[in-house]
Each structure stands twice: as structure tokens, then as C-alpha cells.
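Figure 2 data, in text form.
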Amino acid sequence: MRELELWGGLECTVNRVGDHYVDQFALLGHRDRLEDIDLIADLGVRALRYPIHWESVAPARPDTRDFSWYDRRLERLRARGVGVIAGLVHHGSGPPYTDLLDEHFPALLADYARATAERYPWIDDWTPVNEPLTTARFAALYGHWYPHRREEREFWRALVNQVDGTARAMAAIRSVNPRARLIQTEDLGRSFGTVATRDQVAFDNVRRWATWDLLCGRVVPGHPLHARLRDYGVASQLETLAAAPCPPDVIGVNHYLTSDRFLDHRAARYPSHTHGGNGRQRYADVEAVRVLQPGAPGLAGVLREAWARYRLPLAVTEVHNGCTREEQMRWTAEAWDAAAALRAEGVDLRAVTCWSLLGSQGWNTLLTGGGVYEPGVYDVSSGTPRPTAMVKLLGALVSGGARDPLVHVPGWWRRPERLAYAAVPRPAPMPAQRPYRDPAGVAVPPLLVLGRDDALAPHLAAACAQRAIPLVFGEQDGDSPEAWAVIDLDDGPRRCGPATARPRLLIRANWSDEPPRPPRRGSATLVIVAADLFAPERSPSPRAVTPTYAPDLIRAALDLLIDRATGEWRLRHGRAGQEPPVRNVLLLRPLEEALAEQGAAAAALLACAA
């Protein structure tokens, strides 16, 4: 078996909300930065999931196409030796002259696919439609995206149209390039629940396979979904797919920490934004990781299920955790290690894809308006891509080299604090979540904190405890020679220990305009100037930090320290849609604001029929 490959991906959604198209490439600034391609190639990824958006190339008429923007970027990838996994529709409904419920959608997509393959005959790997099931749910069952329907009949029509379009698109592509492979992605989790919700749980766990079952021609009489889909008016398309299956060459599994769900009929035990139902029964729908004890089998579990069901090659086609930097690294490393372990068991698992290389914008509101930016491997919040600690981690995963010390601590989903609700015993017969053990078994050195700033120290200690970052307080650098980094809360002369090359963070939490002391020779110094985060009126107090913003300051400072960032950074409070005016300015939002937006999005989602 060939070696496990590292693939990459860019959050590249172009979808429609009402009459407005949401373009992630525009939001992330990628449309204006050709140099992003070289940054990505420098990561050493073997292949990149990259779109050739139907909505962008042929927005007005199906026979009028402009590929020029993609030409330069795809040729640059080709020149750099990076394989391309081309996508045509990514959570979209196509250009304005069609949509997911249009009977002509499959044929129009196939026509565009043929033209694209003729333009780029050297591209062998294709994903004509990303996550058809997820897109159909959000567009035609929950009503968030165009065409904004909330009917099960329309949901199944949207799904089958996309799968039919995928099969026709691959036939058209293969008429140009017989080598073309279908890498079909879909979000894959598992539903759990109380006995009272068993019917919905069972239905969810059948429906999650629908994309791949349809492509493989399995939805025939006797399949649990066949009669339901037939009654919803798609019988002829089912017959076509069964007569001419288009099984994926690689099944692309996308799995997130929120993919596994738990349904509980005792909705009063949970916050109101988790309440939902199916029209017959009300229940709470929460992340399984937050309630099940022991935890769900997670990514490794669904990969084993997919392998057992299809016996087709697998790839993990999205690995991303919108969280703090060390948790992003821990999730990525765990996915890589899980893939390596499954390969050792005989599973034909080809690659792990680091998703959201440039981050993403607005997913906390499901792209329905505003939203926050989540950094990826590169942080583009300043308008210029800045490498984060993820860059070095990816290199270490591929080479087998040393990983960042914080990676060796289990992620929050492996720690007791993951349980946000009263623990519910996980039902048999699913195997228990296997405890995660870092293969290297490396001892984790602490973070050394100098100074006892009464305003910041408690928040720093709380943040490190929450993020499982070992922490010690000292008086000078030499107090903890094994520390991986130093945070100086005061920068006083009494802490003039020996010079060290380990990262050093100085937080200037005051209104003073006095420039910081020059960094000591041999140290990599990061200076945080955080005045803009505090009271609206200027104050001479050097301790003007308020409880509202101190946690946000600490959260951003720790991320920058883990990234080994240097230089002077100014942190200021900001809201969605604001742009930092200069480099090295990081916008922050209070955590409660982000959580409130997430709660509103979840409430809207769960209010719709499951």
C-alpha cells in the first residue's frame, strides 16, 4: 500500500441566499491573491481540492464561459506539481438560470463538466458536487439556502438531482478523459438518542448514506429509502442510477466534532436553541460529544463503517476544527494518526485533507449573513496570509518529525470537560470510543509566566486550564528551563534571566504610548499592545483591563504565541464585517457574542423539520 498522502483544501463555497451569492474566495481575499497558490504548494500537499465554480465561469448563459481566472491558478498548481481535485458546485445551486429543483439541472451540469474537462484535460480527479446530502438539507429541508424550501419532497428531489448531475457530469468528463476519477465527498456522522427517539435515529442513520448509495446504484426495491423516494416522484431517476451506477473511485469522508448527534425527547434538559423535531415528535438535538459517556466512535468509527459498507478506497476529505490553535493542531494530528492506524488494520485509506487552508468566513451563521472568521493553516484576517503553527505541524505529520509540544495533550473532546450536559450512557452495540494516545508519548513542557499581574494572571491561568496548556509561574526565565515559551506580564528588570531562544510574549495591557523595551538578544519576542480593548475613555491606569475583554485578549495572545509570531501586534475589539486597516492588527469579538450568533443559527436550523 502506498504511503498516506496529505491533501489540502480551501473553503470555497459559492452559494445563494435569496438573490445574493456568497463567495468564500472573495470573503477570504483569495480572488485577489495569486500568490496564495505558492503558499499552499509550499506546504507539501500532494493534491488540492480546488473549485472551478460553475457560478463564476458561466454566470449569465450556459454557453458563455470565462475560465481565465482559473487558468492562471490551475496552471500554477500544475507547475508546482500539486494535483488538482476539481470541484464544480460547492454548496451551491448553480448559476441563476438553474437551481437544485430544476429538472434541467443534471443535464446543464454535465454540459458544463464536459466543457471544463476539455479546458483542463490533464485534471484526473473530480468532485462535481460537494456534499449533495448536506446541501439538499440546508437548501430544501431547512430553507437556509436557495431555493429556500422546507419540504421533504423537495429535499429528496434536490438530492437526487445533484447525484444524477454528478453521474452525468462524470460520464461527460470521462468522454474527454477516460482516466478521470470521482472523489465523492459527504459529511458523515452517526446519530444516537434515547429510546423514545429511536425511529428518528434509525432514519438519520440510513439517510446519511444516501449520496453514496445512490451513486452505487443501491437504491432499488428492498432498500430502506426506495419506496419513500419513489413516492416523492423521483422513480425514473432512481431507475437510471441503478441501471448505470457511478460508484466513487474514492469515498471522501468529511467529519467534524459536531457531526455525531444525540437526540433526546427530554428537551427541557437542554437549552431552547437545541430544541427541534420532525413534525411528529419534539426533541433536543445536541452534539453527541457533549453528552455521551463513553464518547461516540468519532472519525475512526465512521471510517470503519464506510469501509465495511462499500469496500471502496477512502480519504478523509475535510479535517478542520474552528477552535483555538492548539485544539486545531490536536484534531488534525488525531485524524492523521487515526488514518495511519486504520491503514495498519487493512483499510484502504489514501489521504487526509487539511481543510480550510485559508480559514473560513461566516459558517457560524451558516452563511446566511455576517458571521466570524475562523483561521486556517494561514490566518488571512489582516488581509495578508500569515502562517500559523499548523504549517509546521503538517510538515511534521508527513515527515514523522517532532510535533509541537501542545499537540501531545488530548483535545477537549477527549477530556472530561467535553460534557456540557448530564452524561447519558451510550447504547450498545456500538464499540466504545478508543482512548487516544499520542504515538510519541512525549512529555509536555509547561508555559512559564513571569509576573503576577492581578488583572491578567487569573484569566491566563483559567484559559490555560481550559485549553490544557501546562502552566507555571516564576520570577525569571531560568526558573523553568524546560518551558517551551515565556509570557512576561510586567517585563520588569527583576526578570533578567539568561537569554533564551524560546518564544517570549510581552503583554502591554495599558494606555501608555511608551514603546516596549527592545527584545533581548536571542529571544523571539511577541509584543501585544492591547489598549484598544479596554474602556472607551482613555485612562492613565496601567491596569485598565476589564473582565469583558481580558479573556479575549488572552485567547488571541496564546494563539499568536503558539504560532511563534513575532513583532508588535495591536489587538482591538471588532465585529463581523470590519476590516483591520493595517497588518499586525487582530480583530477580536467577545466570546459571548460569537456564541449568541451560533445559538441563533442552531435555533433556526433545529426549528425546521428533521
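Caption note: The chain has 17 helices and 27 strands.
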